[in-house]
Design brief:
D-Maltodextrin-Binding Protein, domain 2
Length: 322
Amino acid sequence: MTFHRRRFLAASAATSLFAPSIARAQKAWPDKQVKIIIPYAPGGPTDVTTRIVLTKAMASLGQSALFDNRAGASGIIGAEVFKTSPADGSTFFAATVGILCITQHLQPVPYDADRDFLPVARTVTGWTGMAVHPSVPAKTLEEFIAYAKANPGKVNYGSPGQGTLFHIVGEMLNLEAGIQMTHVPYKGSAPALQDLLSGQIQVQFDPSTLPAIADGRLRGLAVIGDARWPGKLDLPTLKEQGYGKTGGDSWYGIVAVKGTSQPIIDTLSRAIDSALKDPEVIEKLAGVQHFGSYLAPDAFRQKILVERQNFGDVIAKGNIKI
């Protein structure tokens, strides 16, 4: 055996000997605490549901989650902060249907949801009730649409503000049903609900209506979304009644910074899926009127693209502006 061949074999043996040690030195993700940027104030639905799901998901991966609330400008401030985060799996973002599918149709935003973000998973969806004041002579959605057609412009619906999801849901029903409800924007859901309860307006599409539907103060005509509400299972969804094909359900999800590796994204997505099947998580979400609606990265991406186009069409046809 030549000298060079002996040296090559010795080097190969040494490499094989130390390879397991090298592999062990490369720690699997996550090897440290992971930050989740929440673009709204503490206590809101995005904040509460994200904490419930991600706390469980990260615990299953052997790490903890640090929740960083960056509220302001309808989520835009948090999104702008997030897009400059390192793409190393250390930071993720709690996104909403508004941030990913609606806001960019209404105003300039400092981010591009396709260029800057990568879908990880849709996490949860909130139940939203379509409620009318008892003075409205309609006990079903079909009767309400007939009433609205007979009284164009005289049925007023409230929303938490111009250009919000629940404003657009009302306009969506206008277009799909061929009716002309008049939009009345408020500074939040609560004042709109108070005016609905007092009969100042006739309709509201909002999660805040659910308790009043349950106790009979308001009449529920539909639930916005894919699942019936456990608080009143005999209340059909809008889609079951032939409407709401554009979307309109209030969902949330987790996205990563562009450039984050696919193995990291897949690992977190699987952990979220597992967390949403946990009985404790299911119970906690139901307690805040939400349910798990997991979508894997590719399915979540398609959901975003379809709803962004649908909402864009409704906003353009309804001439919705802020």
